[in-house]
Amino acid sequence: MSRCARCGRRQEVERAVRLSHSIAMLTNLPRDVLERILSFVQLDSTPAQFARLALVSPTLRPLVDQLLFRNLVFGTSGGVRAFLATRGGDGPHAAGDTRVLVLRKSDVEAQSGRGSRRRGAQANESCSEEDLLRLCSVCVGLEELHLEGPAFSTLKRRQLGFASNLSSLRVLSIAGSGAGFNLHTIGQILQDLPQLEDLGLKRIQAFPAALKALPRPLCRLRRFALHSSPTVSPHQLEWLLAASIQADSLHHLDFDIADIPPSRLGSLRWAATPVQFLHLTSSNTRAVEKLAQHFPSLSTFAFTTSDHPDSLILLSSCGTSAKFQQLVDRSEGEGGLHPLELASALLYLRRRGQLASLRRIVLPSHRRLDPAYPVLAEVCTSLGIGCDTMSVAASPFD
Asked: Cα separation of 191 and 239, whole Å?
């Protein structure tokens, strides 16, 4: 055997040993921790990819099997029909045991930009309105429903009552696509979900007359997210959050502002006062710098921007909350806070007796390459503030 072949063989053995050790470490975790990790993996994988994990270890097989039916992920109408044909009744792994349902746009349709209507391609079509209705009629124990891109453009008024079967639903997220969900349709769905705690909306169409004829929903949200929906007005936002405001239940707020002057955010100043965790995405420098001051209970402010906000103004705004503890910059490229300016602002405000509660600052990972980052780290250490970096893809509330 040649020297190169021996080196290649040795590297393969070393990789196999490392993989074996990693699997051993994973399977030795407490069951609840391992189950939570696998749940995250499942939501980022196709069902076929996730099912292959059962082949990795005998320890993983029962957990993978359990999660495959407790957390359902469908991208095609054919997958829904196959599931209902085999699991629609009683017995182990019945549809009634499902807790999380995710409906995604078909990969075939996403790549082509339109659904195929050929008879032989029907199994690859995205999930339809009828698929949603059938699943919700049998998966009555659902706690989370995520609609990620299917174009439910023909959902009829008589079909909007599907949520009345879901008395245990706590989390609802809808990412519109094309002529999919509009805000009025969502308002009708919310009428049947007074127990909802977490609502996430993305790419939602909102017309001026939307929601006007509907009573305000009774759900007391703990978390609300709104993205890529510039036509949603402050008045409509107030309508969505009315019960949550009255009950002081809203703790997490995550939204973006696209070309909207801060003056249009007047209703938000009082609408989200119980918020403790705020994540803002905006290219509007004034919004990034000053929005935090309207949240007196704020403990964490995370933001994403392509611009360069003033560190002193932003920190002063955050400091209006006596509970403020963490600032997270998730901006990419040259956007966001510069380490040297941030260090200077921290020193100035602390000398004035402000930001006494601040405990942690998190910057995007590429800021470690900035020559001024060690200066910021040293300043933070001297002030008793943690200074970390993180990938912009990670959760701002980790």
From this structure: 12
